[in-house]
Amino acid sequence: MEITYGSQKKIAAINDLTGYGRCALTVSMPVISHMKIQCCPVPTSILSNHTGYEEYFFDDYTDRLPEYLAMWKKLGLTFDGIMSGFLGSKGQIAMVEEFIRQFRRKDTIVVIDPVMGDNGTIAGTYTEEMCREMRKLVSLADIVTPNLTEACKLTDTPYREKGWRRRELSEMAAKLRAMGPEKVVITGIPQGRFIANFLEQEKEEPMLLRTCREGTERCGTGDLFAAIVAADAVNGVPFEKSVRKASGFVKKCMIKSMEMGIDRKNGVCFEEILHLLKV
Asked: d(Cα 241, Cα 87) in Å, to the nearest integer?
């Protein structure tokens, strides 16, 4: 029996919970809540601070997740959206696949952010087998938000930092869409003093959206971008408008963080300007 607790929309957010460093659930929860959606966390692991620091406490939550999710199933909970971020093992990827199959309804929107690496390098925790499993997970998505490195890995496209032509990006996005998602945005494409996002969706012309690059890379910007896109999708915001909004807000957060002298490892101080993010 499915139970609906009021009319407020809900997103199940599957990611790690990192106490310090502004990434994963500590980004997505306040942002999604600000966008008037209840954010229901599924913690895949608990970290004292993110792995960009020299030391950190880490507790893998994989073995506890089956009981956690079984209770949600027993209660008959339903969700308007499901989103996933960093997954640390093949087992966790399989659990997310099962979660989607169990909790997805006809109108549930699934957003997969395939957090696998950046700057041409795949994370050391990711094996080739996990990369293959991530392709299977992507096939279940309505929307997928890989960065350039992840898009290349998922589509077996040789990575390079510069010189991407629109045709090449379109071919890569088409390969991603062929896996199953209706909407694709490839993020973080360097173009000189600009940074670009390439989006493609069913029955629409592909688009390359550029914005001026601000500062150096910071952790958590992908989580921030994906949270906005997921919340907008559940709220019925058109995809192009959502991508523009997410990109613009990340840029504002970067500028504010530099103004305040926030250490790069501590991500972007979105809290200072969250009130500017329109629902």
From this structure: 28
pTM, two decimal places: 0.95
Q: How far is CA 141 from CA 44, 173, 272, in A?
A: 19, 14, 32
Residue with tokens 């992908």: 222
C-beta separation of 111 from 142 below 8 A = yes
Distance CA 72, CA 51 (A): 30
Nearest to 75 by CA among 56, 101, 102: 102
By C-alpha distance, which of 226, 233, 265 is closest to 249? 226
What average pLDDT does this structure show over 13-38?
97
pLDDT in tens, 36-54: 999 999 999 999 999 889 9
Give the closest residue to 104 by CA, choosing from 2, 185, 222, 239. 2
Helices (H) and strands (E) in the chain, counts: 8, 11
Angle between helices 90-103 and 128-138 (to 10 degrees): 10
Beta bridge partner(s), residue 17: 46
Cα–Cα dist 82/140, whole Å: 11
